Amino acid sequence: MWREGNRIHFQTSVVENNTPVVTGAYIDLKDVQIQVPKLNPCSAGEHLESDAVFKTIAEYVKTHPDQAKKINGIFLYIVTSKGETKAQWTLDLKKCEVYKGELKSGKADTTLTVEDADMVQIALGKLNPQVAFMKGKLKIKGNIMLTQKLKALMDANKSKL
């Protein structure tokens, strides 16, 4: 079978013995319009693996506000994929809020930049955050010591991921 313009040429044969039954046949297609599907450039950013991590953290913070208040910090996570920023998550543990996007007001105590896949590995406990920092997989700006308090939050959610 092959196509020439709006005409498709084909040949059919018997499956059992491969004897041609119809040869030199063709079909003319009239008014055929091929539509190319439009891709949404934002769709890649909407389906990050790390979104599940942050949603789990958000649920934990809602149900355990006392644990969040112990950390008492504001963290801005910048999640990247192939070097491009794909999402931002704010962990405002002073107000016990976790949401996707930039800070609603004020300034983050700590800004963490991490690849999507690395964030998942850190949350699962397969990648030590300190090792990730030393290898350049996790970049931290601001109060680095405050990030040590996040370990308790990550450990509490490890079983839920």
Automatic annotation (TrEMBL):
<dbReference type="Pfam" id="PF02036">
    <property type="entry name" value="SCP2"/>
</dbReference>
<dbReference type="GO" id="GO:0005829">
    <property type="term" value="C:cytosol"/>
</dbReference>
<feature type="domain" description="SCP2">
    <location>
        <begin position="62"/>
        <end position="155"/>
    </location>
</feature>
<dbReference type="InterPro" id="IPR036527">
    <property type="entry name" value="SCP2_sterol-bd_dom_sf"/>
</dbReference>
<protein>
    <submittedName>
        <fullName>Peroxisomal multifunctional enzyme type 2 isoform X2</fullName>
    </submittedName>
</protein>
<dbReference type="InterPro" id="IPR003033">
    <property type="entry name" value="SCP2_sterol-bd_dom"/>
</dbReference>
